Each structure stands twice: as C-alpha cells, then as structure tokens.
Amino acid sequence: MTLASPWRPAEPLVLASGSRTRRDLLAGASLPVEAVPAAIDERAAERQAGGLPPTALALHLARAKARDVAGRRPGPIVVGADQVLELDGAILHKPADRAAAAAHLARLQGRTHALHSAVVLIRGEAEDGFVETASLTMRALDEAGIDAYLRCAGDAVTASVGAYQLEGVGIHLFERVEGAHETILGLPLLPLLARLRAMGLLAF
Predict the structure, then answer these.
(1) Contact at 8 Å (CB) between 113 and 138?
(2) Residues with catalytic function
(3) Among 17, 42, 47, 98, which residue's Cβ finds the most Cβ atoms within 10 Å?
(4) Where does residue 188 rank: exposed (0-12), middle (13-18), buried (19+ CB within 10 A)?
C-alpha cells in the first residue's frame, strides 16, 4: 500500500499566507496545505510592536498572522510565517516601486545582510514559534548593473523585502549565501517539519 502523504490529520495544514513560494514548499514536502491569507496590516503591526529587534519582530509578525487565521479557522493546525531583512541593525521593507528597489540594491550591494525567517504554529490553545537566519553577501554592483538586473527582474522586485528572488534571476546578485535555501525563501522547512513530527502529526 502506497502512503500518499506523511500527514496524519484529516484536515490539511492551514498556511496563514498568500505566498505561493511558501505554499509550494509545503506541497513539495507532500503536505496537504490550504492557504488562507492573514487579514493584517504588517506595517501597522510593526508599529504596534514598538521597536522590537529584527528577530523578535519577525516572530511578532508571524504570530499576528497565525493568530488572525486561527481565530477564523480554530480547528486545523495553522502556520504563520514572516521574514525580516536586517542590514547593520536597520530593517528594510518591500520596495514600493522600481525606484525604491534600486535604492534597496544600492544599499545592499557589496555588503552582507541577514534574512530572519520566523514561523509560528497554533494548534488549539497551544503556540510554538522559532526563527532561523540566513546570511547573504551581495556582489559589488554599479548603477548600470543594478539597472540591468531591474530590467531582467521586472515587477517581481517589489514582491520581496530585498528586491530579489534567489530562486530566480536574483541569484546573479550574490557572491556568498550562508543558510538553508528554504529559510531564504521565507519558510524554514526542516525545523518546521521537526516540530510537526514532535507533535505526532507526521507518519515518519
């Protein structure tokens, strides 16, 4: 008999996110997943956090997303996730447009920044959360190089905090990457699976 999935519960895992990348990571691990985007204003939630350090802020935002969705879907396991980009103690947000993306890249080029990816799981009244960090060093880029990248990447530059997707043309920007690929994509998969396994939710 073939086991279609290691997932034991009858209901799918609920992902409190509209991120296709995060959903695909879970589906790629043969987990049934339902995406339910959280109805929160991330910038407002950040202001309410009152100047938390980057790792704590990532956890705070992931928790806010998970709690929002768990309040609407109280039965299944809910996973909230968020990512914060830190450059020398400063937090960079998703660029609003191409000009803002160019400014982001001008700050990041030739330097090392951190991506803090947080996950919070909610099961009934129980919560568990963690943060994994990846370190990325961007190549030194001049204005012409940044412009060429932006023309290649197109509108996707406004979809992520660093104005790049490492799984796409953004890989050309980097000279060194340290950390799990899934952490960089915004969902640290191995520690998440370890926690699901410890909760008895996986068959192996």
Answers:
(1) yes
(2) 82
(3) 17
(4) buried
Q: Distance (Å, rounded) from C-alpha 177 to C-alpha 48?
A: 32
What's this model's pTM, rounded to 2 decimal places? 0.94
Q: What is the largest CA-CA distance in the chain?
A: 58
Residue type, 52: L
CA gap 161, 84 in Å, rounded = 7
Show Cβ contacts of residue 4 under 8 Å, excluding neighbours closer than 6 positions.
30
Within a 10 A sphere around the Cβ of 91, how many other Cβ atoms? 16
Query: For tokens 């939630």, what's the residue?
Result: 45
Q: Which pLDDT tens digit goes with each residue over 98-134?
A: 999 999 999 999 999 999 999 999 999 999 999 999 9
Residues 6+ apart with CB under 8 A from 128: 120, 121, 195
User: Token digits for 6?
Assistant: 């290691």
Place of tokens 């890249």: 105
Q: Which two tokens stand for residue 150?
A: 């932006």
